[in-house]
Amino acid sequence: MNRRLLFTAALAFATTVIAFAAEAAAVKNIVIVHGALADGSGWRKATEILQKRGFNVSIVQEPITSLDDDVAATKRVLDLQDGPSLLVGHSYGGMVITEAGNNPNVAGLVYVAAFQPDKGESLLSLASSKPAGSMDIKETKDGKYLYLDPAAFAADFAADLPKAEADFLARSQVFASKQAFSAKSAEPAWRTKPSWSIVATEDRAINPDLEREMAKRAGSEVTEIKASHAVFASQAEKVADIIEKAARKAGE
């Protein structure tokens, strides 16, 4: 074999190895944790977009009975994945992924209009530090759970969604236990793993300035989108674009 053939063969081998390494490093699993006062159904559009782009998407239907229960539910879904995963959390889901993200198979975190706590902080302590618009949240008769009045859901949570979609989200919402909202976060995964944050600039559930401050503290890459708290549904393609970008970068 002459030098030219040797060089060509070596180049082809090197190209194959590089391509294989890039493929092996790619994060193909997306695990989504929905927020409180919602459920996973609102993520359908974003999920379908990501699936068409070659991602394996799973949605955690956490019970919101306690932060520990929700972290455990997320870990069970992570355990089903083959290879590294990107964890995505909306709203209260940010509390969950901050702790569940310490799982060794998690390559990165995406916060979508979400709480991004440090150790010892709770959803209530963060939300009260910089209040947003007044939400019509009510208690169940037993006083243990909270829900958003369906009549106020569209204005408070999903002002930029068509009425029929907002009505469905209101009807499918998962009630949140007070215990979940008052639980203190453990060591945050964003200290050791890359993170991205989407700030919904028209958010009435979480003050957009609080979203910015939490993201800055965590060193997250920030994208601002003009949208309500339901940005994951009203701007599904933009949210999917950011998740895809994060998955690519987390796999580098």
From TrEMBL:
**Molecular function GO labels:** hydrolase activity
Please indicate if the UniProt record lists Mitochondrion as a keyword: no
InterPro entries the record matches: AB_hydrolase_1 (IPR000073), AB_hydrolase_fold (IPR029058), Sec-Metab_Biosynth_Hydrolase (IPR052897)
A Pfam family cross-referenced in the UniProt record is Abhydrolase_6
Sequence ranges assigned to domain AB hydrolase-1 in this UniProt record: 30-241
Where does the secretion signal sit in this chain? 1-21
UniProt keywords, alphabetically: Hydrolase, Signal
Q: Which residues form a coiled coil?
A: none
PANTHER family from the entry? AB HYDROLASE-1 DOMAIN-CONTAINING PROTEIN-RELATED, ESTERASE_LIPASE_THIOESTERASE DOMAIN-CONTAINING PROTEIN
Protein name per UniProt: Alpha/beta hydrolase
Source species, please?
Rhizobium redzepovicii
